[in-house]
Model the fold of this input.
Amino acid sequence: MPLISFFFSLSLLLPLSLCMMNNSMSSTQFQYHNGPLLTSPINIYLTWYGSFSPTHKSAISSFFSSFSHPALPPLHPTVSHWWSTTQAYKDLAGKPATKTINLAGKQYSDVACSLGKSLTHSDLITLVKKAITRGSLPLDSNGVYFVLTAADITVEKFCMDSCGFHNNVELVPGRKVVVAHVGDPAMQCPGTCAWPYAKPAYGPPGPALVAPNGVGVDGMVMNLATVMAGAVTNRAGDGWYQGDRLAPLEAVTACPGIFGAGAYPGYPGELLMDRRSKVSFNVYGAGGRKFLLPAIWDLVTGTCKAAA
Done:
């Protein structure tokens, strides 16, 4: 049986009228399909493919570290506060989506781009298998394996109709893990996969916001958050989603273009702003680092819930 990858369309990050439509849909339209969620504590394993600067790696690592090392008061809201909305997503046994996300100490880098600079989805799975076979990464049933590709790496469907995806993969017989991909959109599609930190490629025009960590980096963080929420609440494609199973609206993709209160087409919503640097964001991470994370569909209120 072929594996199915669960993508989120790049159009779902655009400031289109669809975001307003989804913001008013009733919670009964967002349904549970009796499949598994990730309810146990999960470990995040990163595979870096291509050249990433230390600053780039630091920002993304800091995002994942923010779940277990939240910003200290009075900084609020935090990454963990944003994630708390997923606790309403429960499986058949009544267990909620995991609230424990740890960045694993082991990471794998392929700076030399051993599989070339144009990758298929099968190549991404091969990279993870290779890292595990070499002992660079462990085989962890509670692991989520992200393959991160640099700005000059092209990946099947990335920037064409997808900003990222997750897949439930059987790496060895009887052992399935989540493999996911997000690429750096800075060179290939900043207006679609890094909006609102870049002018939109389509839809209502508007000025780009100032990114706290860089357009490509913050685009990746937004997409990593989106993919992770989808993987946790819809691991194998039969968890929580709305619409067609092959093109589902998941926990975050049901809220396109919404980052703050009052969002409408072309406007991401009310955000926090650093008066000195003018950067816009909506959550604080580990060490006080600033991030912009998309709204999550709130099963309790039946609305898109933004952090700030």
User: Anything to note?
Assistant: Helices lie at 18-23, 54-65, 79-83, 121-133, 190-193, 215-233. The longest helix spans residues 215-233. Confidence is low (pLDDT under 50) at residues 10-28.
